[in-house]
Amino acid sequence: MKINKITPDDNEFTKTLTSVVPKPQALYYIGTLPAVRQAAVTIVGTRKPSKYGQEVTHMFAYELARRGVVIVSGLALGVDGIAHRAALEAGGITLAVQANGLATLTPHSHRQLGIDILSKGGAIISEYAPDVPPAKYRFLERNRLVSGLSDAVLITEAAARSGTLSTAARALEQGKEVFVVPGNITSPLSAGCNQLIRQGATPVTKVEDILEIILPGALEQQLKMPLGDNAAQTKIIELLAHGLRDGEELQRASALEVSVFSSELTMLEINGVVRPLGANQWTLR
After folding, report:
1. Are strands 27-31 and 4-6 parallel, antiparallel or unpaired?
2. Whole-angstrom Cα distance, residue 112 to residue 200?
3. Residue 142: what are its φ and ψ, rounded to 5°?
4. Burial class (CB in 10 A: 0-12, 13-18, 19+), 275
5. Which top CATH class is 225-284?
6. Fold identical between 4-214 and 225-284?
7. pLDDT digits (tens, 9 = 90+) for 3-14
8. What's the fold here for domain 4-214?
9. Alpha-carbon distances, residue 199 vs 34, 168, 178, 180, 196 (angstroms)
């Protein structure tokens, strides 16, 4: 796997990291970074989620990804892995941020998940040189990038003394919205979430609670927006609904092969879902 090296300024999607403190001097990545800035939500939580935590994590990640939101997490066990996998199942894009160099995908048990992320048009990112090993303090350093890449952070389940709360703190420092799924008051795994709500985090019970804040007007668009005949068509429709018009940008952002993208776009035109504006510009009808 080719390891690429850029600075945050070199890519439209990663430019949000230029305001992170301390700013990463370099970014290493494998896979495909979004070519343009898209709405993104970081989803994090406990490494040993309850059945409830597993269910709500999958629900939020799947529904957000299905609507074209990029899902960001840390490839860790538990909530991270569930969020990545749900995004892939929805046909969406997901990005993982590692706390070590990219010569090794960690944890080892999530190596296949990492490969799946890459094969579906996502990327794995690190600020560390390829051979740098994981270390406890690097996970805390990594958290500022996990939150910094997104427009908001969603915590689905976390104990009172959870590393997840570090990501929430970083998000608040960065001026990002922090969403929290409320939990059972008798469950230790929900103590961190309920504590964050008491401190002013926004409680959410459905995906629309998030979309109405990070994508104003998107809910009305979603009600009007047709669904495609397959995941590829739906992805193109969602990108158009989010304001992309240029055909080349649409293809890159969709992460579809050029031939597949052209075929599906043609079918959408034939079916009366999209229309050309000329000069390879497109819009929904």
Report:
1. antiparallel
2. 37
3. -60, -30
4. exposed
5. mainly alpha
6. no
7. 999 999 999 999
8. Rossmann fold (3.40.50)
9. 34, 11, 11, 11, 5
